[in-house]
Amino acid sequence: MNNWTCPKCKRVFQKKNQMHSCKVFPIEQHFKNKYLAKEVYKYLFNVINKKVGKCKEISLPCCIHWFGNYDFIALLPKKDKLEVRFSLNRKINSPRIFNNFPLSSKNYKVCLYIQNKEEVDEELLKWLKESYALKSL
């Protein structure tokens, strides 16, 4: 697979010269006065790296992205929870999902909240493994 790495910000993209912002944002700024979100974030990051696949963090002004071979998850810290967005090639019907909309004829954006470590369960990890594998093909 031919990836392109931006020479300035070192982010990896599928297309050469893909439009993006190179602006970085201190990760701690996302967690200012969001202690619960930070605790859940750290826990999820450790679990993902152990059970799903190695990834790195990229902090942007809008949110935090985790990259395996590609960007596979976006995280938006909230005051009392962590918003998680990822893509799948199917729609998920679950009460955990607050938004599940088509990105294309083949992909869906899945959005959910995590409020505590217990919500990082086998069901969620299954979905995230699928998303990680899709972006790694």
Primary descriptors:
3 helices, six-stranded antiparallel beta sheet, two-stranded antiparallel ribbon, alpha+beta, 137 residues
Report on this structure:
With 137 residues, this protein is of the alpha+beta class. The chain has one domain (23-136). The protein contains three helices and eight strands; from the N terminus they run E-E-H-H-E-E-E-E-E-E-H. It has a six-stranded antiparallel sheet with strand order 3-4-5-6-8-7. Strands 1-2 form a two-stranded antiparallel ribbon. The longest helix is centred in the N-terminal third of the chain and has 17 residues, at 35-51. It starts with a strand and ends with a helix. The mean pLDDT is 90.
List the helices and strands and how they pair.
Layout: E1 4-5, E2 12-13, H1 27-30, H2 35-51, E3 56-59, E4 64-67, E5 71-77, E6 82-88, E7 97-102, E8 108-114, H3 122-136
Antiparallel strand pairs: 1-2, 3-4, 4-5, 5-6, 6-8, 7-8
Structural class: alpha+beta
- Strand content range: 25-35%
Low-confidence stretches: none
Order of helices and strands: EEHHEEEEEEH
Q: Which overall shape is indicated by the principal axes computed on the Cα atoms?
A: globular
Arrangement of strands in the largest sheet: 3-4-5-6-8-7
Q: What Rg is obtained from the alpha carbons, in whole angstroms?
A: 15 Å
The total count of helices amounts to 3
